[in-house]
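can u do me a favor
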C-alpha cells in the first residue's frame, strides 16, 4: 500500500523561504492550522507518513505536512536531528505567520512537537504524538528498530531496508514491494544518504550518546512538565522501535495528557491502525477547549 497515492503530491506541494533555507510542505483543507511532522528513517517523507490521513483531517483543519530538513525534500541545514527538527518547525510556523497551531508528530516529529510546546508553550494548542516520546524504562535502549535504522544508514542494502521496514509494523503484509521500491529510491539518493549519516548513522549516534552522558546535559524528557498544551499520546502496543514503556514518563509528567494504546499495531499507528487512530485523534483535536 503506497500511502502517497491518496492525494496528488504534486498538487499539494508548497514551499516557503526561511533564513536557513527553503522548507517544503504539503497543504490540504481549510480551518485551524494543523502541522504534521514525520518521523525519521530510510526514505521517509511527510507524505509517506501522513498522506493517507489527510482526507479525514482536511475536513476540519488546514493540514500542513512539513518536510523536515535532512531527509531529501527540504533544504538541509546541518543541525542536529532533534534540535534541527524543532527549530525548523518554529521557522515554518513563523514563516507562515501562524500564531497558534495544533501539532501531530510521529516519533521524531512527536519529540520535535514536544520541544516546540516546551519552548513556546502558548504557540501549541494541542499536541498529538505517535510513539517515540519519552525514554526506555524497562526495555533495553536503543530498541530493535533503531539498531536496524543505524545499520542500514551505515551500509545500505535492500535486505537491511526490508528488515527495518518490518520492524515498523505488526502485520508484515503492510510492507509491499511498491513501498520497498519507493523507500529504496529515496533512501539511497546520494545527498539524502549523506545527510542521513550525519543525523543517525553510527558516528552521529555515538556523538549524541556522548553528549547525553555529559554532566550538564538535561534530557528533553525531564522537561516535559513545561508543556501547557493538551496532549494525546498514541502508541502501537507492539512497537519494536520505541517500546511502550517509554510512555510512562510523559504520561506522568505532562500536566494535561491522555494515552491511547492501539492493539496489534507497530510504530506506524497512523498507517497500520489508520481508522481507529484517526477516530481517536479527530475526537481529541475537535473537542471544545473547555471540555
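np, heres the sequence
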Amino acid at each position: 500500500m503506497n500511502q502517497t497515492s491518496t492525494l496528488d503530491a504534486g498538487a499539494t506541494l508548497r514551499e516557503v523561504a526561511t533564513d536557513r533555507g527553503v522548507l517544503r510542505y504539503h497543504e490540504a483543507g481549510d480551518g485551524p492550522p494543523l502541522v504534521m511532522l514525520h518521523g525519521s528513517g530510510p526514505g521517509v517523507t511527510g507524505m509517506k507518513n501522513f498522506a493517507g490521513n489527510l482526507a479525514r483531517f482536511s475536513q476540519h483543519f488546514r493540514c500542513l505536512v512539513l518536510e523536515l530538513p535532512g531527509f531529501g525534500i527540504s533544504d538541509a541545514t546541518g543541525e542536529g536531528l532533534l534540535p534541527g527538527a524543532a527549530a525548523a518547525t518554529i521557522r515554518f510556523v513563523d514563516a507562515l505567520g501562524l500564531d497558534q497551531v495544533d501539532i501531530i508528530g510521529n516519533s521524531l516529529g512527536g519529540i520535535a512537537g514536544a520541544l516546540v510546546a516546551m519552548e513556546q508553550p502558548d504557540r501549541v494548542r494541542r499536541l498529538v504524538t505517535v510513539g517515540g516520546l519519552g525514554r526506555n524504562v524497562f526495555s533495553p535502549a536503543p530498541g530493535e528498530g533503531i539498531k536496524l535504522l543505524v545499520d542500514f544508514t551505515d551500509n545500505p542494502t535492500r535486505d537491511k531496508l526490508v528488515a527495518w521496514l518490518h520492524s515498523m509494523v505488526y502485520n508484515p503484509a503492510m510492507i509491499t514491494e511498491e513501498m520497498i521500491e519507493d523507500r529504496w529510491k529515496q533512501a539511497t539518493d546520494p545527498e539524502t544518504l549523506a545527510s542521513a549519516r550525519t543525523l543517525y548513522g553510527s558516528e552521529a549516534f555515538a556523538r549524541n550518546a556522548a553528549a547525553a552522558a555529559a554532566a550538564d546535559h538535561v534530557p528533553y524528557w525531564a522537561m516535559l512538565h513545561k508543556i501547557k498544551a493538551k496532549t494525546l499520546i498514541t502508541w502501537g502496543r507492539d512497537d519494536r522501535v520505541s517500546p511502550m514503556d517509554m510512555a510512562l514518563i510523559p504520561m506522568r509528567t505532562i500536566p494535561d495528557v491522555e494515552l491511547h494504546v492501539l492493539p496489534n499495531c507497530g510504530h506506524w499507528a497512523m498507517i497500520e491502525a489508520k481508522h481507529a487512530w484517526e477516530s481517536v485523534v479527530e475526537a481529541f483535536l475537535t473537542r471544545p477547549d473547555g471540555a
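Confidence is low (pLDDT under 50) at residues 1-6. hope that helps!!
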